[in-house]
Every structure is written in C-alpha cells, then in structure tokens.
Amino acid sequence: MLLAARAVGAVDPPQGVQENHVLAYQARTADARWQASAASRACDLSQVIKGFGLAGFRVTAGGKLHFVLQAQQPPLESGFVEVAISSPAWLDQPAPGLLTEVRSDVENPVVKLGKPLALRLFNALEAGMMPRLRYANQAPFPQNVEVRVSPVRFRHAAADFRRCVSDLASRPDAAMLASEIFFATDSADLTQSARERLDRLAGKFFAAEGITRVRIDGFADARGEEGHNQRLSERRAFAVRFYLVSRGVPIDAIDVGAFGAEQPVVAGAGESIWAQNRRVKVTLGG
After folding, report:
1. Rounded to whole angstroms, how far apart are CA atoms 166 and 180?
2. Do both 200 and 69 map to the same domain?
C-alpha cells in the first residue's frame, strides 16, 4: 500500500528547517526522487520527504486518483491543513496560490485529497510548480509546519505512473469492478443470472486489494408514473444490497442510490430499449 504507516515511539517534535515562523520540510534538489510502483489493484507515485514522511499519488482499479500526505507522527489535536501551489524562483509562471483547507484529524497521520485537487497538484508538479501543505499550530508540531513537495524528477516518474494506470485499466478483470444487474418488467426479483453475477462481485470485494466500498444505483425504464418508477428503482437497489449482505459484504460498506427513470443507459422506446434500462449498477471501489 502507498504510504504505509511507520511505527513511532515517544512523540518528539519533528526536525525541519527553520524559516521565519515556519518549520519547513522539503527534499533537497540533489535528493529529490519520485518512484512509480504497481500493486495488484493500484498504481502509486511517491516521494520521501526526509524527517517528515511521504507524499504521493495513487490510482486504484476503480479509476480514482488521490493525493496522500502521511506524517511519521500524527497531529495530537484537530485542525486544518492549508493546500497551496507556488512557483519556484526560476519558473516564470504564475501559481494558483492557496487552493483550499482540509481537516486534519486527531491521531490520523494521513491527509487525503480527492481527484479534483489531486489532479491540480499532479498538473502543477508536471509544470514545475511546488505543492505546499501547511499544518497550523498542531501538536506535536511546535509551530506552523509546511511540507513542500518537490517537482524535481517528477516528469519521468509520472510517465511510468501513467503507463501503470493504462495497464491497470486494460486488465480483463478491471471491467468487473462495475457491473449491471437487469430485471423483468415491474419486478425487483433477482434472476439466477443476476445472483451468479453478484456472487462474483462479492468475491472480488474480498479478494481485490484496495476495494473497501460498494455503490449500488437502481433504475427503471420510462414506462409508469414517476413515483412508481422511483419506488421500483429503490426496491431493485435494496434487493441487490440485501443479497450482497447475505454474501458477507458489510452493510456499512454499501452506499445506495435510486433514480427512477432518470439517467437511461439507452434512450428511446421499445422492449429492447426498456430492458437495458431496468437495471441496478454495482460499482466496487476504494
């Protein structure tokens, strides 16, 4: 797994470089390295930040990109981490500056950013800019702590990372992380074929690395009144959830949505069209 936690004994203040009122951590230019690596169900791109921890990106088989910063020592009180992008002096290009603030939880050494922010940081690094993440006065840090993620040697490793992501998406079993279950007209009963497909998905939930969540979305075809179609799509979604739970998938790992006749996979009328829209979509992800 990317950014595996390191065992920490007594809590000692981390040792960074003092700059005004900020304790700064950054890989020196000569030491800055990015490493791309592949796991069975994910691709990682990471940089060691000496004295602080690790920073990096991960894409799981479900296609989700995250940026993760992990400290060797977790903060001992809750607070916020400012996320910003700056340009080094040699780069004649304006930087976005402060992007957002994210919550830093007690005893959690990991700051995790979802795809929109992660993609902005990734693109900034490719352009030679520097992401900065600042912890504001959180113990055990004695003052503001700023982590600076170096763009040095990023592009070459990013190319390897992209190849890994492409290979991951093309694996034959990757498509099985999203699957559709179809139903008869005005029915929420699971067919034998549907049960067999759900059995395979339940097996992948337990076997695949990085899979921790299940998303279930129910749909109906365009016939029938709006309220009826909404209730029917809910019954279908909950029938799938009930079956997966009966196969051991934790109920608190499952998110359920229902959309009635909205979001048809195929537009039009006729039985061949309606049959494709009477469905539940099941997606496994991290």
Report:
1. 23
2. no
